[in-house]
Write a structure and sequence with these properties.
Layout lengths: L5 E5 L4 E2 L4 E6 L6 E6 L2 E7 L4 E6 L8 E9 L4 E5 L3 E3 L1 E2 L1 E2 L4 E5 L3 E2 L5 E6 L5 E7 L7 E3 L5 E4 L8 E9 L5 E3 L5 E5 L1
Parallel strand pairs: 2-10, 11-19, 13-20
Antiparallel strand pairs: 1-3, 3-6, 4-5, 4-7, 7-8, 7-9, 12-14, 14-17, 15-16, 15-18, 18-19, 18-20
Length: 187
């Protein structure tokens, strides 16, 4: 397996100005300590709850934007045993309305089925992004507001909670509020 630290944002997507989010770090070992960095600057030390640590950021300003990384350390001298990929965090003012996410043929499917995920938005000069909970960054970028993501022969790895959020290329550019979460269950 991959021995690196997993880092992701909860909920995923662009964080609303003044809002809150949780940065989660996970590693496959118990004990030890996570150290969280933003732009290479140490933000805090997190004790593990099992294999996961959470860092709550609230009342966020734009200064919370930037690249975050998480290091897993062990022992008194803080030897770095593993580090995460970079999580790019973006804080922006969000505006409604929100896009609508839909899953066809339905949110509960049998393994091996084909599934379509669609993010529908009112503004066709927007680019929409699909996020999967527990995963860092964008899962998929919709090339147009009528685009559909086709997943063929889905397995349990495709299951989870999805949300989409759109970037409107206007002056000034704005981000939408994220869609409601939709859960895909693969049986």
């Amino acid at each position: 397996g991959d021995s690196s630290v997993i880092i992701y944002l909860q909920p995923p997507g662009v964080i609303p100005l003044g809002g809150s989010a949780v940065i989660r770090c996970e590693y496959q070992r118990n004990g030890g300590t996570f150290v969280l960095y933003r732009s290479g600057k140490k933000l805090g030390t997190l004790k593990l709850h099992g294999r996961r640590a959470e860092f709550l950021i609230s009342n966020v300003t734009r200064s919370f934007s930037g690249p975050y990384t998480c290091h897993y350390t062990h022992g008194d001298n803080g030897t770095i045993l593993a580090r995460s990929d970079t999580l790019e965090v973006l804080v922006e003012e969000l505006r409604g309305p929100k896009p609508v996410l839909s899953i066809l043929p339905g949110h509960e499917v049998t393994a091996g089925s084909d599934v379509q995920l669609r993010c529908t938005f009112w503004n066709d000069s927007a680019t929409c992004f699909l996020y999967l909970e527990g995963q860092a960054g964008t899962h998929y970028e919709f090339p147009s507001t009528e685009a559909t993501l086709h997943l063929s022969h889905v397995g349990p790895g495709n299951g989870g909670r999805y949300t989409c959020q759109c970037f409107i290329k206007q002056t000034p550019p704005t981000w939408s509020i994220p869609s409601e979460f939709l859960e895909l269950i693969v049986r």
